Amino acid sequence: MMIDLMGPIEKEELMSSDQIERTIRRLAREILDHNRGQHGLALVGIRRRGVPLAERLAGALWEIQAVKVPVGHLDINLYRDDLSSVATQPIVQSSEIDFPLSRKIVVLVDDVLFTGRTVRAAMDALVDYGRPKAIQLCVLIDRGHRELPIQAHFVGKTVETDAVEMVEVRLREIDRREGVLLVEPAS
What we know:
Elements: E1 9-15, H1 17-34, E2 41-46, H2 50-65, E3 71-74, H3 83-86, E4 105-113, H4 117-127, E5 134-142, E6 154-158, E7 166-170, H5 172-175, E8 179-184
Parallel strand pairs: 2-3, 2-4, 4-5, 5-6
Antiparallel strand pairs: 1-8, 7-8
Helix pairs in contact: 1-2
């Protein structure tokens, strides 16, 4: 019996560290323009990589408008519709939203938009904290293949992928390196 020890095969670098940073600044400007400023805005990052992206967006918003936008962290594991197929004992992390959501325009932040199921779970989790004025979605990568009618308001980059390909976002806060890669499973 042969055991495949190879991990995913890198096909292409989709974004470098510098491109990620430029994209975050662009997304921050788009969020401000779309919402006519920062009044009433809040950012909520979906764990894992949505959290550092939300923190970076808040930093970019500070640089542009010198205003502090509250940032929350949201764990969606218990809201997933595929929970039983993901793990028998899911790892639940804390959600940290220490500001009221009422009358806020909440921008959910995630790294990759794929089927839409993560975003649906995030919206379910979010409303347990209150009823925002509006929920908008900001993603670094939109790779298509939606299973639910969910679209992002703010997209860093749209990438056409095959269903078997994966998009790996690596952020220095979690992965100690930075970049976005298109990968496929080892055969």
